[in-house]
Design a protein that fits this description.
Helix content is about 40%, strand content about 20%. The chain is an alpha/beta fold. It binds NADP nicotinamide-adenine-dinucleotide phosphate and magnesium ion (MG). Magnesium ion binds near residues 236 and 239.
């Protein structure tokens, strides 16, 4: 039995008990053991966190620091994240079902990279975003500057709890905002750990707060709070749409990163070994629980069988097991609820006539029975109208759609309410670039998938959301631009604008 870890809220630089005294259990998805407990935050907790964020913002202790001062603190935070790598990776894996190999190699470094990237930008931005306007026809001095928005809210899901949080708090803090974050109820632990690391690195009390609690109550209240000026959200399209409505009522700035059903287009010149690995990576990374997973695989009809056979052979060589075992290639599904969603879609797929070439079942056996393990699953001979092909499943399920010519493949790829990612597999760079141009998605990969960088914009076309995370675009999304204009005329009788209403002649 693992020792159960008890956490508190992180508000105003301090561990703080929740108002209600109620808690929520956090479990290990491999065996359903309770591993941690966090407060079930309520509206009073959100009020306290927002008040602290507002007070800190208005005090100027963070917002009025120079860009370089903030950059130095965020760099220190990045270094401290890396110093705590083993602990953070362990906790992320324990609570989210992510394999330890991935959290060590990708997730923890990605949090540090997000902090380092915004810090680097802070040295460049004063030159790019603070400028003089040209001389005007009357003597005046005009310039424009970037300013923080104020109090931001960050709401994140359970698939990459630390990375998706960092993509919000790094740019928010870089630009001088304060932020209140609400993690997903099933994966709240690592964001609380990051709060302490940021505070210990020099981010002042109140600039970064974490309130754990249910999205439907605490989260819903946070996004409507009148003192919150900006919402950064990653999660389902359904909740994103709801948040967009609430944001509209309050005229709040909002960045939404929502669902996807990304296509992977294999061209007829593709290398089979590369294509089969790419198509597996596209839908098996984090067992498919990724918003930009490539789960509609378009292959030339004549190549379908060969590629799928190779994929099956490679799946058989993968080790599926406890996420904390460094030998595991794939871990469990994150929750019982998500496992049910996946099983429901697989049933729908069968009913709608797609054939299963591999998998399709919950995994059985001693090491799987207590956890939420699901077999990598490949549907073949799909068409783009089938429910399991159109809707986001968020699990290890690939849908293979055979095509006859490339224009048809591109049309099918774009025939989706989503537009988050897409990839092309080809040995011909010119053809691949042509397909990249045609895809209506926020990211296109060529001969890779899931490759997100801290310096490249990430976000969706269509119902996959709006706004962009990462790099320069994220910094713009967490700031306002202000024009300051000073007339250099002290003599009212000579002031041209006064003449317009007869104040000067
Ligand atoms: P979700 O409901 O959209 O949850 C995402 C976050 O929003 C969580 O922190 C959640 O809190 C919070 N939330 C829920 N309702 C809210 C509300 N009314 N106001 C403010 N915040 C609210 O996603 P989910 O239920 O975990 O997953 C459902 C499906 O969404 C998945 O099957 C998948 O298709 C998709 N999904 C997409 C992404 C992505 O990266 N784009 C990530 C996760 C899930 P609680 O945890 O307390 O509910
Ligand atoms: Mg939900």
């Amino acid at each position: 039995m693992t020792q159960v870890m008890d956490y508190q809220l992180f508000i105003n630089g301090q561990w703080t008990p929740g108002d209600s005294g109620e808690t929520m259990d956090v479990i290990n998805a491999s065996n359903q053991e309770v591993v941690a407990r966090v407060p079930r935050g309520n509206q009073k907790d959100i009020d306290r966190a927002v008040a602290s964020a507002k007070e800190t913002f208005e005090s100027g202790v963070w917002a009025d620091k120079t860009y370089e001062e903030r950059a130095d603190i965020l760099r220190t935070a990045a270094a401290n994240v890396l110093k705590n790598k083993n602990k953070l990776a362990y906790l992320e894996s324990l609570t989210s079902g992510s394999t330890i190999r991935r959290t060590m190699a990708i997730d923890v470094p990605a949090v540090a990279d997000a902090l380092k990237n915004v810090a680097n930008w802070l040295y460049e931005l004063p030159m790019l975003e603070h400028g003089m306007c040209l001389p005007w026809y009357i003597p005046q001095h005009s310039y424009y500057i970037r300013e923080p928005i104020g109090v931001c809210a960050g709401i994140v899901p359970w698939n990459f709890p630390m990375i998706l949080a960092a993509w919000k708090f790094a740019p928010a803090l870089a630009m001088g905002n304060s932020i209140v974050m609400k993690p997903a109820s099933i994966t709240p632990v690592t964001l609380l750990e990051l709060a302490k690391i940021l505070y210990d690195s020099g981010v002042p009390a109140g600039a970064f707060n974490v309130v754990t609690g249910p999205g439907s109550s605490a989260g819903n209240y946070l996004v409507q709070h009148p003192d919150v000026g900006k919402i950064g959200f990653t999660g389902s399209t359904e909740v994103g749409r709801h948040i967009a409505h609430l944001a509209a009522d309050g005229i709040k700035r909002v960045t939404l990163e929502l669902g996807g059903k990304s296509p992977v287009i294999v061209l007829d010149d593709a290398d089979l070994d590369m294509a089969s690995s790419l198509c597996l990576h596209a839908f098996l990374y984090h067992s498919g629980q990724v918003c930009e997973s490539g789960t509609r695989m378009l292959v030339p009809r004549a190549m379908q069988d060969q590629i799928v056979d190779l994929m099956i052979e490679k799946i058989k060589g993968m080790k599926i097991g406890n996420q904390l075992d460094p030998a595991s290639d794939l871990g469990p599904i994150a929750s019982a609820e998500q496992l049910e969603t996946i099983m429901r879609y697989v049933d729908i797929g069968k009913k709608e006539g797609a054939q299963i070439a591999y998998g399709g079942n919950r995994m059985q056996g001693e090491q799987y029975d207590k956890g939420f393990f699901f077999e990598p699953t490949i549907f073949v001979n799909c068409n783009n109208q089938m429910t399991q092909v159109r809707e986001e499943i968020f699990g290890p399920v690939q849908c293979v759609i055979p095509y006859d010519d490339l224009d048809e493949a591109i049309a099918i790829a774009n025939d989706s309410p989503y537009g988050l990612g897409g990839s092309v597999c080809s040995t011909n760079a010119t053809r691949a670039q042509w397909v990249a141009k045609k895809l209506r998605t926020g990211t296109v990969w060529i001969n890779t998938h899931h490759m997100l960088r801290p310096d490249a914009p990430f976000g969706g076309y269509k119902e996959s959301g709006y706004g962009r995370e990462n790099g320069y675009y994220a910094l713009m999304a967490y700031s306002e631009v202000k024009h300051v204009c000073q007339s250099l005329t002290n003599d009212a009788s000579r002031y041209r604008y006064f003449r317009v209403i007869g104040l000067a002649r």
